[in-house]
Amino acid sequence: MIKIVVDAMGGDNSPSVNVKGAVRALNELSEVQIVLVGDEAQLDSLLDAEKYDATRLTVLHASEVISCNEKPTEAIKNKKDSSMSKAFELLRTDPDARAIVTLGSTGALLAGTVLRVGRIKGVKRPAFCPILPTVVPNQIVAICDSGANVDCDPQWLQQFAIMGSLYLKKAFGVEKPRVALLNVGVEEEKGDALRKETFELLKNTASINFVGNMESRDLLSGKFDLVVCDGFAGNVLLKSTEGACSELMHLLKKAMMSSFTSKMGALLVKKKLYQVKDLMDYNKYGGAVMLGAAKTVVKGHGSSNEEAVYHCVDLAYRMEASGLVEAIAEELSDQTRGGRMDLTLLKKETENSL
Asked: Where are the beta strands (DSSP E) in 246-332?
């Protein structure tokens, strides 16, 4: 049985979507046990309307919520009765608790991961790794990092490539993930000093399948399985891609509703259009995992619906069931150990987290 702690507060639609998503996970995943953390009265009221195996779900009361406007490290340290803080404390103190799922503050999640859970031995910095669909049916692409580390060095990016490759192998069954480095051109000599040095490191890393540089326009092409980048560039890449796809769908809908003739044409392709819309719906892909943490951490989109919460729990389950944390620890055991993280640097970066 895999115990997953769900922070039931903090998202735009919390706690209702958290409860519904968690209940669906209980009903579909027989090996999952869930702890919902949040306002007990609200959670019990929502649970009364659901059908589930009550022996596999418990509620842990938390009277506070960390908002996205608060300073992350201060919030994690001072708001000890917040749902996220109590979820992290349970994850830290309960050996049976294996994973956390939250839709709350990204900065607080990063601070809580480092301060309460810690890193896998050998990991220099944890990194966010979200999943996106591609134009190739049933094929995904991962971005690592997408916001945890604004400034990086080549060794960090090398570890992102190693951890991201293991993630795709273990959680999604991608046997030999094609790893690309995000750059301003595909030629080996392109980019700044960071990208050039990282290219050489990745090219000589035997445990990954490095295929070269990738320009941002090829993210959804299906030519790559994992894109490695610093958190600043990765966050811009992720949000610009999501935004462009969303605006394109709005523009297409507007064009098709502009005249009687276009409306008739829209009826003929309605089914296909909805298939494209569903393909780009982030709610169907869960959240971004925090690779490198000592326990499984999954961050859902703040505006997630219940389907997204379910997929976040399912993703956490698959990571734990596949032994991803142990695989990363083994792979990085011979690499240079990272020292204790500078808490001043942590505070600065989490307050500027993306």
From this structure: 288-291, 296-299
Strand positions, DSSP E, the chain: 2-7, 32-38, 57-61, 97-102, 127-129, 131-133, 140-144, 178-182, 209-214, 226-228, 288-291, 296-299
* CA–CA gap between residue 107 and residue 76 (Å, rounded): 10
How far is it, in rounded angstroms, from Cα 29 to Cα 25? 6
Residues 6+ apart with CB under 8 A from 155: 124, 201, 336
Q: What is the Cα–Cα distance from 164 to 55, expressed in whole angstroms? A: 35
Instruction: Print the SS3 string covering 13-24.
Output: CCCHHHHHHHHH
Question: Which domains does the chain show, CATH number per domain?
Answer: 1-126+292-354 (3.40.718.10), 131-244+274-281 (3.40.718.10)
Residues 6 or more apart whose Cβ sits within 8 Å of residue 137: none
Alpha-carbon gap, residue 142 to 46, rounded angstroms = 34
User: Residue 347: how many CA atoms within 13 Å on its side-chain side?
Assistant: 8
Q: What is the pTM of this model?
A: 0.88
Report residue 23 CA to chain centroid gap.
21
**Cα gap 75→86, rounded to integer Å:** 12
pLDDT in tens, 105-159: 999 999 999 999 999 999 999 999 999 999 898 899 999 999 999 999 999 999 9
The DSSP secondary structure of 320-353, one letter per residue, reads HHTTHHHHHHHHTTTSPPP----HHHHHHHHHT-
Return d(Cα 156, Cα 127) in angstroms, integer: 9
φ and ψ at residue 338, rounded to 5 degrees: -80, 140
Q: What are phi and psi of 140, to 5 degrees?
A: -115, 170
